[in-house]
# Entry
Amino acid sequence: MSAGRERMEAELYEEGGPGRAVYELAMNPITHLLIGWELGSALTASPRERAAIAWASVAADADGFGLLVDLGNRVLGRPETAWYGTFHHVLFHGLFGAVLAAGVAAVVCRRRVLAAAGAFLAVHLHLLCDLAGSRGPSPGDVWPIHYLAPFSERLTVSWAGQWPLNGWPNVVLTVVLIGVVFVQAARDGVSLVSLFSPRADAAFVAAVRKRL
Ligand SMILES: [Zn+2]
# Structure
C-alpha cells in the first residue's frame, strides 16, 4: 500500500465511528455473504435454508446500525452520538448474535435443526474471519471479539496477528469465492444473486453458462 493511501485511510479511520464504518464497508459484508452462501450451498439445496444460512453470515454486522443514527444526527445538526462505536462488534458479534440468527433460521425454515445449526455455524465463521482479518489501518487497531457481549466482558478474545480489513488475504479470499460462485452458477444453475432476485439470478446463470 502506498504511503499516501495509508495516511488517507488512517485519517479516515481517526474521524471516529462513521470514518471507521466507511473503511469497513469497503469489503467486509460482501466477503461474509460469499462465505455464508458457500456454507449454505454445502449444507442444503433448499433455497430458503440456503438463504437463511447465507444471511446469518452477515447478520452480525447489523449491529453497525448505529452508523445511521450517528450520521443522521450529524446531518440534522443534533448533538453528536456514538452509537456505532458503542454497539458495533459488541451487540451481535458473539454467542448472543449466533443464538439469535439460529432462532430466526429455525422459525423461517422447515428443517429447523439443520437451518439453526447452519446459521449458528455461519455466525461463528463470521467471528473467526473478523478475529483473523478485521484490523484497522495501523497495527494497534486490533478488534477483539466479545463473545459473551452484551452481557459480559468475559471471553473477550483477540489475535495479535490480525491482518487489516483490506489486507491481501481478504482480497484473495474474496476473489477466490467470487470465482467459486461463477463455477457453481455454471455447474448448478444457481448463484448468490438468487438471494436478491431469482429473475436476476436466472439471467446471471444464463450469461455465465454462455461463457464457461
Ligand atoms: Zn463483523
